[in-house]
TrEMBL record:
An annotated GO cellular component: apoplast
Catalytic residues (positions): 100, 104
PROSITE patterns: GH16_2
Transmembrane segments: none
Organism of provenance: Durio zibethinus (Durian)
Compartments it resides in: Secreted, Cell wall; Secreted, Extracellular space, Apoplast
Signal is among the record's keywords: yes
Broad class of the protein's primary localization: secreted
Protein name (Swiss-Prot/TrEMBL): Xyloglucan endotransglucosylase/hydrolase
Length: 294
């Protein structure tokens, strides 16, 4: 891994400290490769478009896997009638007991808002869905979607505003995803059996092809070679002695006061579904919901 000293300067999560990290890139082919349906990829300079029609969707994957850090993509979602379509952007490890962090953008009929569904899998167990609409139209311009991951928390961000936090509560006996390296993936596909109004609204193929557009691919994370054992990667990607990673800094262990206020605002105004309060699915509240502050 090419490890660089860099100054990471940004509002909110990032402070001006000399920290170890992986150099980011804005070029797709330096970090990613097509995963399937290469004939449904459209390259326009730095812009990548994925196409969905009634023959196929398309998807891509990162060339490497990572343990802790931050990944970001700028995405412009399918315009017009996108009912039945899903554009997914997620991190995932391999195997039946995998860990996974999901953004799923659920299409809708023209004029209705897109919904973002987030989910967290730990040791192969998901069913932690939250859905919200957005404070902007995600089909009109590019917006950044990020996942920040360290040993204390997983944070989903939209334009640097946190929309969900999954906190490490191992002290409560709740497993936390911190020992499996993850790849970064995105795809567009037809999910009209569930994506729009529970599957009531089907994909209208007369509007195909459906296009999701991408740019600004950034990964600032610890790269984990496949040849290295999981426990060795965990050591390599954690701060110790003189080796300091920005994601292990105390300021990264929880949201700032401003970010906490942002999260409260987002959830109050835009959250439309939270598994934690779905008593039909979960007559007994999931244990992590009892302890989450947000």
């Amino acid at each position: 891994m090419a490890v660089l000293f860099k100054i990471s300067v940004a509002l909110g999560f990032f402070v001006g400290l000399m920290m170890l990290g992986l150099a980011s890139s804005a070029k797709f082919d330096e970090l990613f490769q097509p995963g399937w349906a290469m004939d449904h990829f459209i390259y326009e300079g730095e812009l990548l478009k994925l196409k969905l029609d009634n023959y196929s969707g398309a998807g891509f994957a990162s060339k490497s896997k990572y343990l802790f850090g931050k990944v970001t993509m700028q995405i412009k979602l399918v315009e017009g009638d996108s009912a039945g379509t899903v554009t997914a952007y997620y991190m995932s490890s391999d195997g039946p007991n995998h860990n996974e962090f999901d953004f799923e953008f659920l299409g809708n009929t023209t004029g209705e808002p897109y919904l973002i569904q987030t989910n967290v899998y730990v040791n192969g167990v998901g069913n932690r869905e939250q859905r919200m609409n957005l404070w902007f139209d995600p089909t009109k311009d590019f917006h950044s979607y990020s996942i920040l991951w360290n040993q204390r928390q997983v944070v989903f961000l939209v334009d640097e505003t946190p929309i969900r936090v999954h906190t490490n509560m191992e002290h409560k006996g709740i497993p936390f995803p911190k020992d499996q390296a993850m790849g970064v993936y995105s795809s567009i596909w037809n999910a009209d059996d569930w994506a729009t109004q529970g599957g009531l609204v089907k994909t209208d193929w007369s509007h195909a092809p459906f296009i999701a557009s991408y740019k600004g691919f950034e990964i600032d994370a610890c790269e984990c070679p496949a040849s290295v054992a999981a426990d060795e990667n965990a050591k390599k990607c954690s701060s110790s002695g003189q080796k300091k990673f920005w994601w292990d800094e105390p300021t990264m262990s929880e949201l700032s006061l401003h970010q906490s206020h942002q999260l409260v605002w987002v959830r109050a105004r835009h959250l439309v579904y939270d598994y934690c309060i779905d008593t039909a699915r979960f007559p007994v509240m999931p244990v992590e919901c009892e302890h989450h502050r947000h």
